[in-house]
Amino acid sequence: AATHPLWPQIEKLTMEQLGYAQQGVEGGVWQLFAEEGEMKMYRRELEEDGLVVDPLKAVHQVRGATAHEMAHHFWSPDVRFEWDTSIEQMTVLDRISSDTIIFLQLHKRVWPTAQRDALFWSHVRKIPPSHPANGEAYDTWIVCNQSTEHPDDPKDGKCVRVDLTVCFVCQTFIDPPVQEGEEITRDNLLTKITYCSVVNPGGWAPASVLRAVYKREYPKFLKRFTQYVGEKCESQPIAF
Length: 240
Ligand SMILES: O=S(=O)(CCO)c1ccc(-c2ccc(C3CCCC3)c([C@@H]3C[C@@H]3c3ccccn3)c2)cc1
Fold this sequence. Notes:
By secondary structure, the chain is an alpha+beta fold. Helices cover 23% and strands 37% of the residues. It contains 4 helices and 12 strands. The strands form 2 sheets. Strands 1, 2, 5, 6, 7, 8, 9, 10, 11 and 12 form a 10-stranded mixed β-sheet that branches. It has a two-stranded antiparallel ribbon with strand order 3-4. Helix 2 (67-75) packs across helix 4. The longest helix is centred in the C-terminal third of the chain and has 27 residues, at 207-233. It starts with 6 loop residues before the first helix and ends in a 7-residue tail after the last helix. The site of the ligand O=S(=O)(CCO)c1ccc(-c2ccc(C3CCCC3)c([C@@H]3C[C@@H]3c3ccccn3)c2)cc1 has 22 residues, from strand 7, strand 8, strand 11, strand 12 and helix 4. Residues 84, 86-87, 105, 107, 110, 113, 116, 118, 145, 162, 164, 166, 197, 199, 201, 205, 213-214, 217-218, 221 line the site of the ligand O=S(=O)(CCO)c1ccc(-c2ccc(C3CCCC3)c([C@@H]3C[C@@H]3c3ccccn3)c2)cc1.
């Protein structure tokens, strides 16, 4: 609820991340490091205290599912194990409101690095079109994941705590446009996705190893997620 102590931070970070995701990748700041079909993955090489924290920005576009469907499945705890192969355990520590949950996740160990876990709030929100006039007809949906503290954090020191800021922003376009009164089918849905993440691994790991892990894991992760939602939704009524 809007009275929760985290609310001001959730509101501020979500809108900041929306702006950050909507910035283009021009200007040579972003380095294209992976490309598969419509998916393009960019990174900036950044180290903090000798730790690789390379910001990542992926842009993708998929047909057949809406931004609402994509964002809902990215946010929902109920389906996380169906697409996110990087996690071993997931606990919902708190449900702050109907659109904000606090997760504790144990990630699978990525050899040779030590096992990691993440404790973060996850907020999903729809942003009405800012220019409905020029044909921007549908809402933008955003999921923002931000590391946080929580009283029920086990703090058992069994693994290394990552610090993450992630945003998943998507918007649906009807392409090709449909005539007045014609029914929109899934073939008309084109959803543009921007996925941004900054993951501080929390404990030392060789830069070469981390960059290899990022290069291998992120393309697989986003491709698997979007394929999962497409398959799950194809036989369902469209949720705009
Ligand atoms: O988008 S989310 O919020 C979805 C909720 O699950 C999210 C995505 C990825 C992570 C993440 C957590 C830990 C690590 C470790 C591995 C060794 C040191 C850092 C990595 C590294 C980048 C590689 C990776 C990328 C994608 C999938 C799995 N592995 C990523 C966490 C959350």
